[in-house]
Design brief:
This protein has 316 residues and is mostly beta strands. The chain is 11% helix and 35% strand. The protein folds into two domains: 154 residues, Hotdog Thioesterase (Thiol Ester Dehydrase, Chain A, Roll); 117 residues, no CATH class. The protein is built from four helices and 14 strands. Strands 1, 2, 3, 4, 5 and 6 form a six-stranded antiparallel beta sheet that branches. A five-stranded mixed beta barrel has the order 10-11-12-14-13. It has a three-stranded antiparallel beta sheet with strand order 8-7-9, covered by helices on one side. A hairpin with a 3-residue loop joins β4 and β5.
Amino acid sequence: MPVRPPSDVHHLLKAFEGRPAAVSASARDPVNLPMIRHWCEAMGDTHPAYTGEDAIAPPTMLQAWTMPGLSGGPGARTPAYEELFALLDGAGYTGVVATDCEQEYVRPLRPGDRPTFDTVIEAVSPRKTTRLGTGYFITTMMRVRVAGELVGTHRFRILKYAPATVPAPEPPREEPRPARPRPVINRDNAPFWAGVAEHKLLIQRCTACGTLRFPWLPGCGRCGSPEWGTVEACGSGTVHSYVVVHHPPFPAFDPPYAVVLVELAEGVRMISNITGVPHDAVRIGMSVELEFIRLDGGGELPVFRARADRPDGAES
């Protein structure tokens, strides 16, 4: 059902211009050093004029001395001011936001001063449309005195508005699960991935000294020979070490999950995933066996499944 826009009540609001919003109201507390100290600490203002026996109040505290507090105070608002707000609320302009203020300082306030103030409804704007909604700017002018002497003025402007209609958010779309990252294949490891495609786990073997190596490298780490052949792993191994990944999350992976360092029966070690067992049940020394998983969109990866006869005796 469409929301009916609030009516234009500017002709009624104009009658409030010039009427009092506060008359001979008194500050709830005299100007005092504790409030000055709290204000300066909150603002980070370390000016020496605001401390000591001859301290003055920061000029920008002018409005603070006139605030009625959460519980209100005598003379805080006149019936005219309350009527103005009731009219706006009843017409649908229920939102309120402060927009700006202008202050003039005639003389500084000092501890012991007891401010009094009078406030007038100075102006009501025609109806305006803002990003918050449609409404009226209400400007009040306050004159602050001490013992009848003018010490400062405070012009304050608010917007009373009818909150703009916010369209209902669209239901979240279910995003497709990101694809698992594909291995980087280059001239040094291409034969390894060719073996994986045939469900073979190939280990490099130096033809000069016979040393097995994994991961694949262009030369032997023991004798430096660039010549090599391959040995097909039997697929058996044990968990030499492991980590459980909780953070940060990576696309296509659901933490927590275990990443294992498997020592193959041939004596080399390989980092991989482990399947067939919860992440919190992986143990060092656990017996594993090779298997291959197919990736979405093609390709395969070698991983390791916990064996049913692993040392902890649990079933996979």
